[in-house]
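Lab notebook, bench 4. The sequencing result for the construct came back, and we need a structural model before the next group meeting so we can plan mutations. Quick request posted to the team channel:

Model the 3D structure of this chain.
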Amino acid sequence: MPPDPNEIVRAHVWVKGRVQGVGFRAHVEYYARQIGVTGWVRNVGYDTVEAVAEGRRADVERFLEAVKEGPRMSRVDESRIEWEEMVGNSFTDFRVMRST
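Done. Here's the predicted structure in token form:
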């Protein structure tokens, strides 16, 4: 049986490449708000961006594609996605968090 596109899910994604200084986090935040998922995005180290998104499976999957594509000046060399257990809606919006 295929996954339910309306199921509420949580995805944790890391992308590595040229993702610093190219508007990557703003791109991710923009698409998350347009698509309607909640969560956060932040820089990790010098070549990685991490994000968590919650919402309808179909919306989260669209969000993940936007993250893997990135803005025009970026380059995503690799991505890793972990589907995590939902423990209620953790977020009220999508925001850029402070870098680690």
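Residues 17 and 76 are 5 Å apart (CA to CA).
Will bring this to the meeting.
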